C-alpha cells in the first residue's frame, strides 16, 4: 500500500489537487493500492474556487515509498502566497532525507522552496511564475517551458493540469507504462505527455487574440492539420480574400502565416509521437508530411 499525502494550503486550486488525486485513485482501482491523505494546518481549507475542503491536522506515518505532494494555490505572485508551516517544512525535509519523494504542482514549488528542497536542484512551475521562482530561490535551476522536472526525488510540475502528467509519470516510473496508460485511458486523458513537452501548445500560444475571422481559420486548421490546406480554401472558409487573410492572420498571431501555424501543429504532434517511440519517418507521415525531410528541418 502506497500512501500519498497532499498538503493543502489556503486557496488551493481544485484541479491542482483533484487531477493527481484522481490518477492515484485510478491506480488503486486497477489493483495497485494507494491510500490518499489530505493534511493541513487547520481542519478546513477554503479552495481558490470557493469549495471548503476537509483535512486532517495530524500526519500519517510515512515510508520511503510514500509520496508527499503540494498542490498550488491562487495568486498572481508567489510572494503573496501562503507560508508553509514549520511542522510541514520539517515533514518534507525528513521524508526526503529518509528516501521519500516530494512533489509539487504549479505554485506548490514555492512551498518546496520554503523548505529548502529546491536548492541545487532543477525545478519548474507555471510559466507566469518562473521568473519570480528563480528570483526567490537563486540556488535552484528553474527549467522553463517544460511540463515537469525530476531531480533527486524532488518532482515539480508546471501549471494546473500538468499535475496529471506528473502523476501519470510517477505511476509509469513506479509500476510501468502500461498501468499509467490504463489510468490515462480511464480518465479520458488525450495522452500522457513527457516532461519536456511545452507548457503551452501551439493552439494555446496563438489563440489569445480577439479576431473572429482568424479564429475560424485556426479552428479549421486545428481539425485538419494533417491535410493539405491551400490558402484559397482557408480564405473561402473565412469569407475573405487570400491577401486579407494573410494580413489578419499575421497581425493576430505575431507574424505567423496560416502555413506556419499548420506546421507548428504538425511539429508538435510529431514530437509527441516520436517521444512515444514512433520513428521520425512514421511520425512525418502521420502528421501529413510527404516525407521526413521537412520534419527534420523543422525539428532543427
Automatic annotation (TrEMBL):
Pfam families: DJ-1_PfpI (PF01965), HTH_18 (PF12833). Transmembrane segments: none annotated. Residues 215-300 form the HTH araC/xylS-type domain. PROSITE patterns: HTH_ARAC_FAMILY_2. SUPFAM superfamilies: Class I glutamine amidotransferase-like, Homeodomain-like. Keywords: Transcription, Transcription regulation. The keyword Transcription regulation applies. The keyword Transcription regulation applies. This is DJ-1/PfpI family protein.
Amino acid at each position: 500500500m502506497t500512501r500519498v499525502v497532499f498538503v493543502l494550503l489556503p486557496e488551493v486550486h481544485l484541479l491542482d489537487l483533484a487531477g493527481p488525486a484522481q490518477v492515484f485513485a485510478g491506480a488503486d482501482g486497477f489493483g495497485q493500492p494507494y491510500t490518499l491523505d489530505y493534511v493541513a494546518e487547520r481542519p478546513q481549507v477554503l479552495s481558490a474556487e470557493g469549495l471548503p475542503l476537509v483535512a486532517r491536522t495530524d500526519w500519517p506515518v510515512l515510508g520511503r515509498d510514500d509520496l508527499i505532494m503540494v498542490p498550488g494555490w491562487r495568486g498572481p505572485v508567489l510572494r503573496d502566497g501562503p507560508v508553509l508551516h514549520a511542522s510541514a517544512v520539517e515533514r518534507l525535509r525528513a521524508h526526503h532525507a529518509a528516501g521519500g519523494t516530494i512533489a509539487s504542482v504549479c505554485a506548490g514549488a514555492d512551498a518546496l522552496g520554503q523548505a529548502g528542497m529546491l536548492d541545487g536542484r532543477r525545478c519548474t512551475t507555471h510559466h507566469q511564475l518562473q521568473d519570480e521562482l528563480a528570483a526567490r530561490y537563486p540556488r535552484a535551476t528553474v527549467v522553463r517551458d517544460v511540463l515537469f522536472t525530476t531531480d533527486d526525488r524532488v518532482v515539480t510540475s508546471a501549471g494546473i493540469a500538468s499535475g496529471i502528467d506528473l502523476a501519470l509519470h510517477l505511476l509509469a516510473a513506479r509500476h510501468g507504462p502500461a498501468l499509467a496508460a490504463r489510468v490515462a485511458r480511464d480518465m479520458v486523458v488525450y495522452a500522457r505527455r513527457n516532461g519536456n513537452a511545452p507548457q503551452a501548445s501551439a493552439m494555446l500560444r496563438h489563440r489569445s487574440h480577439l479576431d473572429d475571422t482568424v479564429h475560424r481559420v485556426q479552428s479549421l486548421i486545428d481539425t485538419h492539420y494533417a491535410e493539405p490546406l491551400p490558402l484559397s480554401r482557408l480564405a473561402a472558409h473565412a469569407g475573405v480574400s487570400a491577401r486579407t487573410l494573410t494580413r489578419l492572420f499575421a497581425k493576430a498571431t505575431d507574424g505567423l502565416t496560416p502555413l506556419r501555424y499548420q506546421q507548428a501543429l504538425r511539429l508538435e504532434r510529431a514530437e509527441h509521437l516520436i517521444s512515444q517511440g514512433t520513428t521520425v519517418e512514421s511520425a512525418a507521415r502521420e502528421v501529413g508530411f510527404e516525407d521526413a525531410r521537412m520534419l527534420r528541418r523543422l525539428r532543427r
